[in-house]
Amino acid sequence: MKLNLHRNGLLLMLALLLCLLAGCKHEKTEQEKLYDEITAKETELYKDKTEAIDKDKAIEMVRMYAEYADKYTTDTLAPEYLFRAAEISENANQPNNAITYLTRIEENYKDYRNYPLCIFKKAYIYENYLKNQEKARLYYEKFIADYPDHELAEAANSSLTFLGMSDSDLIKVLEQISKQ
User: Fold this and answer.
1) How far is CA 65 from CA 40, 68, 70, 103, 169, in A?
2) If exposure means fewest CB atoms within 10 Å of the residue's CB, which of 25, 39, 97, 127 is most exposed?
3) pLDDT tens digits, 81-91
């Protein structure tokens, strides 16, 4: 009888413990909530690949990426979200914002997997959007010096070659190259 009571007591305690564990819900952290919100917005923003992206939604997406990177600077998603913010900003014709996000990556996330691409994109944006030949040259040269074997090194070299040329000069050079 004692053994039966002891076993019943253990079963009762086990049942109570299971009830407590089942009743405990994991409260999401603010970081998890923001991540979930970003993921949902990305799905909404990119759901229809045939239509142009809604500019207001894109701006909101950039704001959320920046907020995450501001709050959680040591998280591995911080540079990725800054990179995505830069890409959206570039495509929304906001090159200064794109440069700002790329600069944050350049200064704070040198180990980020797309770091070389950030340097190249800065050169490209300076050249093509901001028409700042000096900064473009600086970043193309930095890219070539630091990443000579990168798949974009040839493009960076070509960009340097043609940097600052007028359209008519560029056409002449290309015609000469095609004749050779």
Assistant:
1) 13, 5, 9, 15, 41
2) 25
3) 999 999 999 99
